[in-house]
Amino acid sequence: MNTTHALPAGAAGPAIDTVPIRRVLISVFDKTGLERLAPVLQAAGVRVVSTGGTSVALQSRGVTVEDVAKVTGFPEILDGRVKTLHPNIFAGILARSDRPDDSDLLTAHGIERFDAVIVNLYPFESVAANPDCLPEQAIELIDIGGPSLVRAAAKNHAFTAVVTDPTQYTDFIAAIQRGGTSLAERTLFAAQAFERTARYDAAIARWMSRHVGSVATGVLSAQGNRGTPDNGTAVAGQSPLPMRLTLECEQRLTLRYGENPHQLAAIFAPVGTHLGLAGLKQICGKELSYNNLLDLDAATRLAGLIEEPTAVVVKHTNPCGATSAPTIAEALATAMAADPASAFGSIVAVNRLFDRTCAEKLLEPGLFVEVIAAPAFEKEAVALLTTRPTWKASVRLVEVPAGDPWAATDGMELRSIAGAILAQCPDDRPDDPAAWKVVTRLAVPECIAPALRFAFTVVRRLTSNAIAVCHNSSLIGAGIGQTSRVDAVRIALEKAGSRARGAVLASDAFFPFPDSIELIARAGIAAIVQPGGSKRDAEVIAAADAAGIPMVFTSRRHFRH
Known about the structure:
Blueprint: E1 23-28, H1 34-43, E2 47-50, H2 52-60, E3 65-67, H3 68-72, H4 87-94, H5 100-109, E4 116-120, H6 124-128, H7 135-140, H8 145-155, E5 161-163, H9 169-178, H10 183-222, E6 249-254, E7 266-270, E8 281-284, H11 290-305, E9 310-315, E10 318-324, H12 328-338, H13 340-343, E11 346-350, H14 356-362, E12 369-374, H15 379-385, E13 396-399, E14 413-417, E15 420-424, E16 437-438, H16 449-458, E17 467-471, E18 474-479, H17 485-496, E19 504-507, H18 515-523, E20 527-530, H19 537-547, E21 551-553
Parallel strand pairs: 1-2, 1-4, 2-3, 4-5, 11-12, 12-13, 19-20, 20-21
Antiparallel strand pairs: 6-7, 8-13, 9-10, 9-11, 14-15, 16-21, 17-18, 17-19
């Protein structure tokens, strides 16, 4: 049996393709582009309804404007907090042109349609991002009417166009001049409008999370720190983690593939974030790969931990060379020589200007690097690296801007696991050697104290279980990613070879048994630095005393998985 299904009473029919622009509502904080829009509106005889400063700006450009208060029959109140929130406005935006009942309702109440809404929002994101912004200032920039107008027009895009950014004026002007907006244009504008309000709400949600955290911290402090937030993450000097994280990320770069050629991959970054690797600028060379970026992250984050001029050489996310020296060129030469086999095809990062002298160091025979990262490059260095070496077409030179890359994620480092995201405060705070404690009978000679500090900084960026052997301010052997700490010690000492004699050794976590100390003593290590905290600390300390090796406990672990 054949059946037909009639539309329910009052249901909308097919959307209209071309909608002439006869009446528009304009309320914009950003007045950019009005000088282009105004004469087109006036020439086309478009009736304009507007508010406050926008009305003044349009009238100064020759546009006849009807005030919103005349449409609503009600003045702006509460210092402008309420002006467009009225049925005479929203019914004119939301009415469906193909619904007779909608048209009858408008006629009955004397309401006119709007064919387009042009609205951009208060600059909440930019103002709230200022560290000096007070809560009351941020709250006043939470736009209420603007997003409501935008969402209403976007919902009714079958009949109403919505323009949310001055960059869209060119297309909107072209539509006016040819007789109206097409359904395809209105649909695109609507999608962009919802993206804009989503981004805006996400920024407010992130700010509110921080604001709630600061208020909660203040309340706890005022109450004598009674209890902690439900998530149990209150740590001295840190705000509690938010209970909800709202992020909007945009694709910055499509990568050739992921870790392996059969995996699709891209870089996504929080909208508006241009610090750290989210803001990298590639000067030259082949496109960056997924693995390049992981290595760049490891290299730049270690280089950024050290104040002195430093060069870091990374292979498979682990440093195989790291040196601080009076100049970047000296640091680079020593870091590359620490483990030449691993350094071939590596990623290099420095924490100062990469100059001509640095480039000349890498031009020596037998060297090849995939990527060089620096805050900035000297023109002469770029010219040398991109013209003289045999690998000139391969090397990528990348500038990485300074600044806090975690600001857009509420100060949290995010890492994906299957079906979820792990969040933590990044391990980027410097250690305080003044709080370290010598636990052996033998004190640390003053001449090797700087080497201990350097070694314990480097070991933070090695994969656990991790051991770093350093001579002065240079990494000479690393044991990384081992399931047994004694194996990590053995590998680090083998890498260091004879250079281990007189060097220092750092461990990212405690030694669970004294067997590691026995290996360390045979290699001739001059001092040990480790967090401590094992049940067998006493046995480990006794082994160090027996070997005549001074040992320092930092009481701070630096696992990196």
